[in-house]
Amino acid sequence: MSKFAKLGLEENLLKAIQDMGFETPSEVQEKAIPILLEKDTDIVSLAQTGTGKTAAFGFPMLQKINIESRTTQGLILSPTRELCLQITNEIKNYGKYCKGLNVVAVYGGASITDQARDIKKGAQIIVATPGRMKDMIGRRMIDISKIEYCVLDEADEMLNMGFYEDITEILSYSPDDKSTWLFSATMPKEVATIAKKFMYNPIEITVGGKNMGAENVSHEYYLVNARDRYQALKRLADANPSIFSVIFCRTKRDTQKVAELLIEDGYSAAALHGDLSQNQRDLVMKSFRSRQIQMLVATDVAARGIDVDDITHVINYQLSDEIETYTHRSGRTGRAGKTGISMVIASKSESRKIHAIEKIIQKKFIHKEVPSGIEICEVQLFHLANKIKQTEINHDIDTYLPNINEVLEAFSKEELIKKVFSVEFTRFYNYYKKAKNLNVNAGDMSEGSKDTVRYFINIGGKDDFDWMSLKDFLKEMLGLDKDELYKVDVKESFSFFNTDSKHQELVMDFFKEFELEGRRVSVEISKDTGRGRRGGRDRGRGRDHGGFKGRGGERRGNKTSSGRGGGKRDSRRGEDGKKEGGRNDHSRRDSGNSGFKGRSRRKSERPNNSGTGGRRRNRN
Ligand code: ADP
Ligand code: MG
């Protein structure tokens, strides 16, 4: 007997469950289903998003209604059109072996007459948003006077959205002896009020506060200046070439703006918010589900409860004012046993919120560094290499091969590889090679984000340098102007100096293999100003990769060092002895195969489009 059978579900439902691949009931299902099957009772069920609530009420409802009858017996109210459609589909799926079942979705923005006609055919179950439902009851297009079960799904959200009055009115047309099943992620007092007003002696169940995916979601934050948010977002996306993500903004306007910028910069992105027409929203969701859109930029309301599988990253472009919202956001990923990452792009002033959220989710955030331009180039290079490796050969090309061979005859394999990569990669590299460090040091907000980099160099007084002669020496070596190199600070056996961040690559590249009178001169990026420098500087400088070296943050004195993308690196990073936590995990996911299709074009176009940076247009 399957675990679902033990809950008391019938054969035709069990068959559907098997088809869907559900093996074990979730906690809310285990608790709610037997109660709802056995008793005609009201119920208040508190469970986070992603805990499987739809099935918890859907299966009992399907089992209890009389499918032979055409009377409307079940009503499910949900806050948004997207959820309404999602639930409708889900219930249809659950009931696919229930012959004669008719489930109809009722929501605003679509033809009311079509919906009325579908209902007239006899809908045993109606799934509705409150506004349209009220409308249709008012026009006598729907009769709910005989319903036996009424579900208030995402009750907290419906109340947030101001549906209290609509719900009250709708319920006034329903019989008193129906059962009301209320589902909510949180229990604010408005929900308690509803429960009190509309329900009779409800059984309460609470599910351990855990999202089904919660275990699988790691939480990261990136500290940047507020004005660098967009750049940081782009880097996070570029450092994760297979990203399939929802990006949350605070307002509709920001949502729209960020989506537009991403699109201009060549990403497959789209906005989802309440100002779009219903039709547009449908299209967006359709493209997202089918992976034509990789980055869905959404408001909280529009994305509430959206259940799309395999979302790899949730990105909090801005945190919401209500920290509880974070749970809903991060619950969009790590679903159905998959792993996911929830990232927060935070300004220093938001770090307090991070701690508050940690209390709520009972998990620690990992402070990560926004990847450097070079790091991203590395990731992209290896992504490209893997893509080439996995690409199936198109044999239609065979006929042209002799001619192509002739053109390329002169090149060795190695040269060809370099050329292929250059075709795809040069613009990307050029865009990123001078990219500045976007990270704001947690303890050093005002200073840390200035466009300057401080270096440690292992020569000093004992090598007969004073600050002036060292400055001259460095200037000359690096070809920099006198005001491009400053804050030269010479100690006995080492020194410090600064340049603008844009020269960081130059400096680091120059000193990669530099020797002075037979001694290796090494330069490191430093955040401390001479105090607290640590030994072992030469560890882990891995120089085995053709000149691209990730480095941002290695000596930054931050708690987390910046690892880098590209699963290949993991072992070498390991030698560094750094505690890396999630970073490596997520790089590994990058090389997953979820999103290779149709991407190369986008990638090669983007740096070009974005050459001047996404922030160039400061409209609205
Ligand atoms: P909630 O309404 O609590 O946010 P959903 O009902 O949308 O959650 O379910 C989240 C996802 O989990 C859906 O994709 C659903 O198909 C899946 N799911 C639900 N129950 C199970 C189960 N017992 N086993 C595996 N997956 C499940
Ligand atoms: Mg739900």
Folded structure, characterized:
The chain is of the alpha/beta class and 620 residues long. The protein has 4 domains: 5-206, P-loop containing nucleotide triphosphate hydrolases (Rossmann fold), CATH 3.40.50.300; 217-372, P-loop containing nucleotide triphosphate hydrolases (Rossmann fold); 374-432, no CATH class; 447-605, 2-Layer Sandwich (Alpha-Beta Plaits). The protein is 39% helix and 14% strand. It is built from 24 helices and 20 strands. Strands 3-4-2-5-6-1-7 form a 7-stranded parallel beta sheet, with helices on both faces. Strand 16 (485-490) and strand 17 (495-500) form a beta hairpin. The chain starts with 10 loop residues before the first helix and ends in an 11-residue tail after the last helix. The model is unreliable at 443-449 and 528-620 (pLDDT under 50). The protein binds adenosine-5'-diphosphate and magnesium ion.
Break the fold down into its secondary structure elements and pairings:
Blueprint: H1 11-20, H2 27-38, E1 43-46, H3 53-64, E2 74-77, H4 81-94, E3 103-106, H5 112-120, E4 125-128, H6 130-138, E5 149-152, H7 155-160, H8 164-172, E6 179-184, H9 189-198, E7 203-206, E8 217-223, H10 229-238, E9 245-248, H11 252-264, E10 269-272, H12 278-289, E11 295-298, H13 300-303, E12 313-316, H14 325-330, E13 340-346, H15 351-361, E14 366-368, H16 373-390, H17 401-408, H18 413-433, H19 445-448, E15 452-457, H20 467-478, E16 485-490, E17 495-500, H21 504-510, E18 515-516, E19 519-520, E20 523-526, H22 570-575, H23 582-590, H24 600-609
Parallel strand pairs: 1-6, 1-7, 2-4, 2-5, 3-4, 5-6, 8-13, 8-14, 9-11, 9-12, 10-11, 12-13
Antiparallel strand pairs: 15-17, 15-20, 16-17, 18-19
Helix pairs in contact: 2-3, 3-4, 6-8, 16-18, 18-24
The chain binds adenosine-5'-diphosphate and magnesium ion.
